[in-house]
Amino acid sequence: MKSSIVVFLVNAVFFFAVSVVYGFATDWGEMVGFPALLLTGGMSGMIGIYLWLTDRRVGRQPQDHEDAEISDADADYGFFSPWSWWPIACAGAAAVAFYGIAMGWWIFPFGALLGIIALVGLSYEHDRGDFAH
């Protein structure tokens, strides 16, 4: 976790510095790039600070040890179903919904309806059929 903290905080400092240079280069007249760079630095800084606070609370992680093995960090990551087709349906529904927002609002309800169906299918796929438990 220590290396991740350093990467995110260095990125934050870099983006803040680049945003100031960009502001001077554009005479503070360009209202998209400067705020975007500031927000990118802020988001990177928030992740770095969160990781730093978490590292202080949790302590040293296996990935911080030079002599750590992969098996030292094996924890229960939860339940995963690699055979599921429902995430693809969720992605398709999101694509239709966002297409509807961009191209025509009349398409959006179809994407929302498909999204509801896909989320219900994803939620209940282990309650029926071959994979019920």
Could you list some keywords that capture this structure?
mainly alpha, 133 residues, 4 helices, 2 domains
What does this structure look like?
This protein folds into 2 domains: 2-64; 86-131. Helices cover 64% and strands 0% of the residues. The chain has helices at 2-25, 33-58, 86-103, 108-124. Helix 1 (2-25) packs antiparallel against helix 2 and helix 3 runs antiparallel to helix 4 (108-124).
Question: Could you say which structural class the secondary elements and strand pairing correspond to?
Answer: mainly alpha
- Please give the share of residues in helix: 55-70%
Strand-residue proportion: under 5%
Number of structurally distinct domains? 2
The tally of helices reads: 4
Mean pLDDT: 89
Taking the sheet with the most strands, its summary is: none
SSE pattern, N- to C-terminal: HHHH
Low-confidence regions = none
Assembly annotation: single chain
